[in-house]
Amino acid sequence: MRDERGEETSENAIVWNVYTDEAQKADAQMTDGWSRSIDVLLVFTGLFSAVLTTFIIQSYALMLPDPTDTTNALLMQLLGQQFNASDPALVPLNRPQSSPRQVHWVNGLWFSALACSLSTALISMLAKQWLQSYLPNVSGSPRHRARQRQARYMHLQAWHVPGIINALPLLLHVALLLFFAGLVVLLWSVDLAITLVTWVIVAFAYILYFASIALPLFYAECPYQHPITDQLRMWIFPDRSVPSPPPIFAYSRRRRPSEEPAKIIYDARISIATFEDVVDATALAWLFNKSTDHEVVSTALQAIAGLPRDFSALRILRDAGALPLIEQGFQSCFHKDTTVDLKWHLLDPELAELYCRAWMKLTRGTAEQWPFDIVQPLWMLQDLNTHPDTAAIASCAVALSSFDSHMSQWELVAYLARCSAGELQLSQTTQCCILDSISECFVRWEMPVAVIEDTATRAVPVLLRMLHLTEDLPNSKVRSAAALALYIITSGGAIDLGLYMSEDKRRGEYCELMIEALSVIVEGPARFGVQDALLDIVGVELARLASPIVAQSERFPQRLRTVARSSLSKLYADGRIAQGIVPDSILADVLHLLFPPAYLSESQQSIFVTTLVETLETSSHPDITNWAVRLLEVLLSKCSLAVSQAFVENNGINAVVRAARAGAVDSRRLQIDSLRTMCAFITSTTNEYNAVGTSHPALDEQFDVLLESEFFDTLTSIITSRRWWLFEVSGHWLPAIVELCRIRPGAKVWPNVWKTFKEFAERNVGEDGYSETLAHLDVIRRVLGEEPQA
Prior knowledge:
Among the domains are: about 15-190; about 270-400. It is about 70% helix and about 0% strand. The protein has helices spanning about 15-60, 65-80, 100-135, 140-160, 160-190, 190-220, 225-235, 275-290, 295-305, 315-320, 320-330, 350-365, 375-380, 390-400, 405-420, 430-445, 450-470, 475-490, 505-510, 510-525, 530-545, 545-550, 560-575, 585-595, 600-620, 620-635, 640-650, 650-665, 670-690, 695-710, 710-720, 725-745, 750-760, 770-785; strands at about 335, 345.
């Protein structure tokens, strides 16, 4: 039984259950061993302290003044006075006695030994309590239980609990040494022979003791094992022991931004590790280093394949020796026939795939190459047609090991092309792996420009199709990976890939990456092999990005907004963004973003005006209408004859007039914008007419269409229906109407227009613009030659 592809380290992954089982066995063995050792120490400490106390009672008495000594001295003095002191019978016997200095040394050594012994008993009792609190009952998911146990284990190591427990016998051994030293000092002045025998026995015992500690340091198979030996080995020979991570206190529970300068090549080994990732990494490292069960080790190594892309503690796994074990595990999935043809035979393709993904996970962003001695099995796995996911993963490993060959990268693009065409079914994990491999290849490539451009021509259409297929899956990891790959390819690979290992980072900057990439494609679609159908996909994708740009304008820098506006203008003018192609709300946001329009040539302006008029005629969405009218106002202001002709020929006058009528019900602002747009058109055409100086057929036709339209009826009805700002009338509307009246004074509309504006001026006597309005009306009256009559 195996986990789903890509779920090897998920909440309920198998590896965490295996870890919990192995940890329970190891913890039980460890704590039971320590507990039994402490029990023995406590028993020995009690016996030793009792014996030592007996000796101390006798030696301590030697330090106190003895009343009988004074009595004996006085008696001897009295006898000496009564008898002849020269009599040998009366001379006291000289027995060997310890000097006061020796007595103090003996008591000092034995009291120190007693203190060490009792301290050993105290610390042993504390250690028993520590061991009881080390094994609490933890509930939750398998990964949560595994993390809790590994965190306790790491804290146990960080606070040096094993070292303290292992040092307890050493403290008792020091107490014994102090006792023997005191014994030798006590006997030194009493009997030299006994002293020498005792000293020889003690010296021999402690020579054997220190030898039992030293020999295992140099001979690993030596059976003279001692608790302190392992600690000494790590101190003296750190290169021979399994590397351990830095103390747990060195890691933060929150992610911290890198303090190192940005690097173009991402190296997973130098990332700053987070607390959770350190716990997971040390748990896996503990599992494949401590366990002797091949299945357990294999499970731990396979789980590395499921680590997230932004896993920050890969260095711990590498330093713990995971990479050589993974390569050995991969090799074990094959059998090499050495009898006849020396061929490799595949035994377990799914397990080989797991080892491949684990290898790529650990070597991502590094200069690590696939081992040469197992290249042939990797190629064999790459050609496995019956397991497409396995073959694709093997192709990724080949591509990441051969940056000097473009064929392996093209193979990855071919996999995505077949997948997007429906010819091949690949899991989401495999697709993401392929996309990430393509991104890294482009970042690290040093190939000729022609090869890079050819690869971009192959890859960009495929990536666009994948984005189109996942457009209804905004949270898809494939979509964010495809967007990043598209950006890297179109930008030439100038990116710090390490900044985009996090899925949150990719999704957070999805809009920025896509705007940059799609804008480059719009500027030169032929360069990337993008044609009509794919350019439509580009248009739809870029249009979708208009909404966040409009809604979160402060998030996007002005340069990016300008780039988006330029690309959207081209796509909109080409008809690739229109009603029916994108939703109305998105189209409204596109038009909002295009205001004011980017710089356009005269031919582009004509096409743009034509498209805007078509949008006005086909859409009833109020926001679309509002922004289309505003854009037309800007484009028709001081426009050329070709632009005004495009506006008239596509029925733009009637479209804007209908918008003005709709504004009478829906929006006062729409009415103003519609009238301004028409006045901008009139101003441009009259200026063009005046510049020509003579009658022009195209201009005459435009004037005829305007005068025959319902514009003036709509204008007069708007003026009489609402109260308008007089300066708007005199500053924007009347100047254009006056110029048209001068060119076409015989039109039937002028009497009614003059009367309507005259009545409007009389309702606003004294307001700003009143005198200018009267001046314009006087011009119309003089042009008409008499007082106009409606």
